[in-house]
Amino acid sequence: MTSPLIHLKNVSKVFLTDDMETHALSNISFDIHEGEFVCIAGPSGCGKSTLLSILGLLDTPSHGTYLLNGRAMTGLSKAERTRVRGSQIGFVFQSFNLIMEMSVRENVELPLHYANVPAAERQTRVNEVLEAVGMAHRAKHFPNQLSGGQQQRVAVARALVSRPSIFLADEPTGNLDSAHGEAVMELLQRLHRDGSTICMVSHDPRFTELGDRVVRLHDGRMFDVETPVLQAI
Ligand code: ADP
Ligand code: MG
After folding, report:
1. Domains: count for the chain
2. Is residue 65 in some structural domain?
3. Which of 142, 209, 146 is nearest to 182 (CA)?
Protein backbone atom coordinates (compact mmCIF):
# COMPACT_ATOMS: atom_id res chain seq x y z
CA MET A 1 0.00 0.00 0.00
CA THR A 2 1.20 3.54 -0.72
CA SER A 3 2.18 5.72 2.24
CA PRO A 4 -0.77 7.59 3.71
CA LEU A 5 -1.56 11.21 2.92
CA ILE A 6 -2.26 11.75 6.62
CA HIS A 7 -0.63 9.80 9.42
CA LEU A 8 -1.45 10.42 13.07
CA LYS A 9 0.37 8.49 15.77
CA ASN A 10 -0.59 8.69 19.45
CA VAL A 11 -1.95 12.21 19.13
CA SER A 12 -3.35 13.79 22.30
CA LYS A 13 -4.74 17.22 22.98
CA VAL A 14 -5.08 18.68 26.44
CA PHE A 15 -6.69 22.10 26.96
CA LEU A 16 -5.68 23.99 30.08
CA THR A 17 -8.21 26.54 31.30
CA ASP A 18 -7.90 28.04 34.79
CA ASP A 19 -7.26 24.99 36.97
CA MET A 20 -9.00 22.58 34.59
CA GLU A 21 -7.41 20.09 32.24
CA THR A 22 -9.65 18.86 29.41
CA HIS A 23 -8.38 15.79 27.60
CA ALA A 24 -10.05 16.51 24.26
CA LEU A 25 -8.12 13.78 22.40
CA SER A 26 -6.33 10.74 23.84
CA ASN A 27 -3.86 8.65 21.86
CA ILE A 28 -5.41 8.97 18.44
CA SER A 29 -3.67 6.93 15.75
CA PHE A 30 -5.10 6.79 12.26
CA ASP A 31 -4.26 7.19 8.60
CA ILE A 32 -6.05 8.69 5.63
CA HIS A 33 -4.99 7.54 2.16
CA GLU A 34 -5.20 9.59 -0.98
CA GLY A 35 -8.65 9.38 -2.56
CA GLU A 36 -10.41 8.22 0.62
CA PHE A 37 -13.61 9.74 2.01
CA VAL A 38 -13.41 9.34 5.79
CA CYS A 39 -16.22 10.39 8.12
CA ILE A 40 -15.71 11.18 11.79
CA ALA A 41 -18.76 10.63 13.96
CA GLY A 42 -19.51 10.95 17.67
CA PRO A 43 -21.56 12.90 20.21
CA SER A 44 -21.15 16.60 20.94
CA GLY A 45 -17.97 17.36 22.89
CA CYS A 46 -16.16 14.11 21.97
CA GLY A 47 -13.29 15.93 20.22
CA LYS A 48 -14.34 15.94 16.54
CA SER A 49 -13.63 19.63 15.88
CA THR A 50 -10.38 19.44 17.86
CA LEU A 51 -9.23 16.55 15.67
CA LEU A 52 -10.18 18.34 12.46
CA SER A 53 -8.44 21.56 13.63
CA ILE A 54 -5.25 19.58 14.20
CA LEU A 55 -5.53 17.89 10.79
CA GLY A 56 -6.13 21.34 9.25
CA LEU A 57 -3.14 22.90 11.06
CA LEU A 58 -5.40 25.37 12.87
CA ASP A 59 -4.23 23.85 16.15
CA THR A 60 -1.32 21.70 17.32
CA PRO A 61 -1.35 18.44 19.30
CA SER A 62 -0.08 18.38 22.90
CA HIS A 63 1.63 15.05 22.18
CA GLY A 64 2.15 12.72 19.27
CA THR A 65 3.11 12.78 15.62
CA TYR A 66 1.34 14.19 12.57
CA LEU A 67 2.75 13.54 9.11
CA LEU A 68 1.14 15.18 6.07
CA ASN A 69 2.41 13.78 2.77
CA GLY A 70 5.26 12.19 4.76
CA ARG A 71 6.36 15.50 6.27
CA ALA A 72 6.28 16.14 10.04
CA MET A 73 3.80 18.87 10.93
CA THR A 74 4.68 18.87 14.60
CA GLY A 75 7.51 21.30 15.23
CA LEU A 76 6.67 23.67 12.33
CA SER A 77 6.63 27.38 13.09
CA LYS A 78 3.31 29.20 12.92
CA ALA A 79 4.32 30.80 9.61
CA GLU A 80 5.26 27.43 8.10
CA ARG A 81 1.96 25.94 9.27
CA THR A 82 0.06 28.80 7.64
CA ARG A 83 1.93 28.25 4.38
CA VAL A 84 1.30 24.48 4.35
CA ARG A 85 -2.36 25.10 5.24
CA GLY A 86 -2.76 27.57 2.37
CA SER A 87 -1.38 25.16 -0.21
CA GLN A 88 -2.52 21.74 1.03
CA ILE A 89 -5.66 22.11 3.14
CA GLY A 90 -9.19 23.06 2.12
CA PHE A 91 -11.41 23.71 5.15
CA VAL A 92 -15.18 24.11 5.32
CA PHE A 93 -17.00 25.05 8.53
CA GLN A 94 -20.56 24.58 9.75
CA SER A 95 -21.13 28.34 9.67
CA PHE A 96 -19.78 28.89 6.10
CA ASN A 97 -17.51 31.80 7.26
CA LEU A 98 -17.90 33.79 4.04
CA ILE A 99 -16.98 37.48 4.05
CA MET A 100 -20.30 39.33 3.81
CA GLU A 101 -18.85 42.47 2.18
CA MET A 102 -17.39 40.47 -0.70
CA SER A 103 -19.16 38.98 -3.69
CA VAL A 104 -19.21 35.24 -4.31
CA ARG A 105 -16.41 35.63 -6.86
CA GLU A 106 -14.27 37.74 -4.50
CA ASN A 107 -14.75 35.29 -1.62
CA VAL A 108 -13.62 32.36 -3.75
CA GLU A 109 -10.72 34.32 -5.23
CA LEU A 110 -9.31 35.39 -1.85
CA PRO A 111 -7.08 32.33 -1.18
CA LEU A 112 -5.50 32.82 -4.61
CA HIS A 113 -4.67 36.46 -3.73
CA TYR A 114 -2.89 35.23 -0.61
CA ALA A 115 -1.00 32.67 -2.72
CA ASN A 116 0.05 35.42 -5.23
CA VAL A 117 -1.56 33.62 -8.17
CA PRO A 118 -1.56 35.90 -11.27
CA ALA A 119 -4.87 37.59 -12.16
CA ALA A 120 -5.60 35.67 -15.37
CA GLU A 121 -5.12 32.30 -13.69
CA ARG A 122 -7.22 33.47 -10.73
CA GLN A 123 -10.13 34.14 -13.08
CA THR A 124 -9.85 30.75 -14.77
CA ARG A 125 -9.66 28.85 -11.50
CA VAL A 126 -12.50 30.76 -9.84
CA ASN A 127 -14.71 30.09 -12.88
CA GLU A 128 -13.79 26.40 -12.79
CA VAL A 129 -14.68 25.86 -9.12
CA LEU A 130 -17.86 27.98 -9.26
CA GLU A 131 -18.93 25.84 -12.22
CA ALA A 132 -18.06 22.68 -10.27
CA VAL A 133 -20.29 23.63 -7.31
CA GLY A 134 -23.09 24.94 -9.54
CA MET A 135 -22.75 28.59 -8.46
CA ALA A 136 -21.30 30.26 -11.57
CA HIS A 137 -24.62 32.04 -12.19
CA ARG A 138 -24.38 33.68 -8.75
CA ALA A 139 -20.78 34.96 -9.04
CA LYS A 140 -21.77 38.61 -8.56
CA HIS A 141 -24.16 38.01 -5.67
CA PHE A 142 -23.28 38.69 -2.06
CA PRO A 143 -23.57 35.97 0.60
CA ASN A 144 -26.71 37.47 2.20
CA GLN A 145 -28.50 37.15 -1.17
CA LEU A 146 -28.01 33.36 -1.11
CA SER A 147 -29.63 30.48 0.75
CA GLY A 148 -27.59 28.61 3.38
CA GLY A 149 -27.07 25.72 0.99
CA GLN A 150 -25.80 28.05 -1.73
CA GLN A 151 -23.47 29.78 0.76
CA GLN A 152 -22.04 26.42 1.75
CA ARG A 153 -21.44 25.54 -1.91
CA VAL A 154 -19.51 28.82 -2.26
CA ALA A 155 -17.51 27.90 0.86
CA VAL A 156 -16.73 24.52 -0.75
CA ALA A 157 -15.58 26.34 -3.92
CA ARG A 158 -13.33 28.61 -1.84
CA ALA A 159 -11.79 25.56 -0.15
CA LEU A 160 -11.19 23.85 -3.51
CA VAL A 161 -9.73 26.76 -5.43
CA SER A 162 -6.22 26.23 -4.02
CA ARG A 163 -6.33 22.58 -5.19
CA PRO A 164 -5.62 21.21 -1.73
CA SER A 165 -4.32 17.69 -1.01
CA ILE A 166 -7.13 17.18 1.46
CA PHE A 167 -10.53 18.67 1.96
CA LEU A 168 -11.70 18.93 5.60
CA ALA A 169 -15.32 19.66 6.49
CA ASP A 170 -16.60 20.20 10.05
CA GLU A 171 -20.36 19.49 10.13
CA PRO A 172 -20.84 21.09 6.68
CA THR A 173 -24.56 20.30 6.76
CA GLY A 174 -25.09 21.27 10.41
CA ASN A 175 -26.79 24.62 9.65
CA LEU A 176 -28.76 23.42 6.62
CA ASP A 177 -32.26 22.05 6.19
CA SER A 178 -32.39 18.52 4.91
CA ALA A 179 -32.77 19.30 1.18
CA HIS A 180 -29.82 21.71 1.21
CA GLY A 181 -27.83 19.30 3.38
CA GLU A 182 -28.37 16.55 0.83
CA ALA A 183 -27.27 18.84 -2.02
CA VAL A 184 -24.01 19.64 -0.22
CA MET A 185 -23.45 15.93 0.46
CA GLU A 186 -24.01 15.12 -3.21
CA LEU A 187 -21.40 17.73 -4.06
CA LEU A 188 -18.87 16.16 -1.65
CA GLN A 189 -19.57 12.70 -3.06
CA ARG A 190 -18.99 13.99 -6.57
CA LEU A 191 -15.67 15.59 -5.54
CA HIS A 192 -14.71 12.26 -4.00
CA ARG A 193 -15.60 10.37 -7.20
CA ASP A 194 -13.43 12.87 -9.09
CA GLY A 195 -10.47 11.97 -6.86
CA SER A 196 -10.53 14.38 -3.89
CA THR A 197 -9.48 13.15 -0.46
CA ILE A 198 -12.10 14.15 2.10
CA CYS A 199 -12.37 14.00 5.87
CA MET A 200 -15.78 15.09 7.14
CA VAL A 201 -17.17 15.43 10.64
CA SER A 202 -20.89 14.82 11.03
CA HIS A 203 -23.19 13.40 13.62
CA ASP A 204 -25.89 12.71 11.07
CA PRO A 205 -25.81 8.94 10.37
CA ARG A 206 -27.49 9.45 6.98
CA PHE A 207 -24.43 11.35 5.87
CA THR A 208 -21.58 9.52 7.62
CA GLU A 209 -22.67 6.30 5.88
CA LEU A 210 -21.81 7.90 2.54
CA GLY A 211 -18.06 7.81 3.20
CA ASP A 212 -15.67 4.89 2.55
CA ARG A 213 -15.02 4.55 6.27
CA VAL A 214 -16.51 5.89 9.50
CA VAL A 215 -14.35 6.42 12.56
CA ARG A 216 -16.09 7.12 15.85
CA LEU A 217 -14.86 9.30 18.67
CA HIS A 218 -16.04 8.94 22.23
CA ASP A 219 -14.56 11.05 25.03
CA GLY A 220 -11.53 11.82 22.89
CA ARG A 221 -10.80 8.19 22.04
CA MET A 222 -11.17 6.68 18.63
CA PHE A 223 -13.06 3.58 17.57
CA ASP A 224 -12.71 2.35 14.04
CA VAL A 225 -16.01 0.95 12.85
CA GLU A 226 -14.30 -1.68 10.72
CA THR A 227 -12.19 -2.84 13.66
CA PRO A 228 -14.25 -1.86 16.69
CA VAL A 229 -11.59 -1.99 19.36
CA LEU A 230 -10.82 0.77 21.81
CA GLN A 231 -7.34 2.08 21.09
CA ALA A 232 -4.66 2.52 23.69
CA ILE A 233 -6.45 1.89 26.94
P1 ADP B 1 -16.97 18.25 19.20
O2 ADP B 1 -16.53 18.96 17.97
O3 ADP B 1 -16.93 16.75 19.08
O4 ADP B 1 -18.30 18.71 19.70
P5 ADP B 1 -14.71 19.64 20.45
O6 ADP B 1 -13.53 19.11 19.73
O7 ADP B 1 -15.19 20.98 20.08
O8 ADP B 1 -15.91 18.57 20.37
O9 ADP B 1 -14.40 19.65 22.02
C10 ADP B 1 -13.86 18.53 22.72
C11 ADP B 1 -13.64 18.90 24.18
O12 ADP B 1 -12.60 19.86 24.27
C13 ADP B 1 -14.86 19.53 24.84
O14 ADP B 1 -14.92 19.09 26.18
C15 ADP B 1 -14.58 21.02 24.75
O16 ADP B 1 -15.20 21.70 25.79
C17 ADP B 1 -13.07 21.06 24.89
N18 ADP B 1 -12.47 22.20 24.18
C19 ADP B 1 -12.51 22.42 22.83
N20 ADP B 1 -11.83 23.55 22.51
C21 ADP B 1 -11.38 24.07 23.68
C22 ADP B 1 -10.59 25.23 24.01
N23 ADP B 1 -10.14 26.06 23.08
N24 ADP B 1 -10.31 25.43 25.32
C25 ADP B 1 -10.74 24.57 26.28
N26 ADP B 1 -11.47 23.45 26.04
C27 ADP B 1 -11.78 23.20 24.75
MG1 MG C 1 -17.56 20.35 16.77
Report:
1. 1
2. no
3. 209
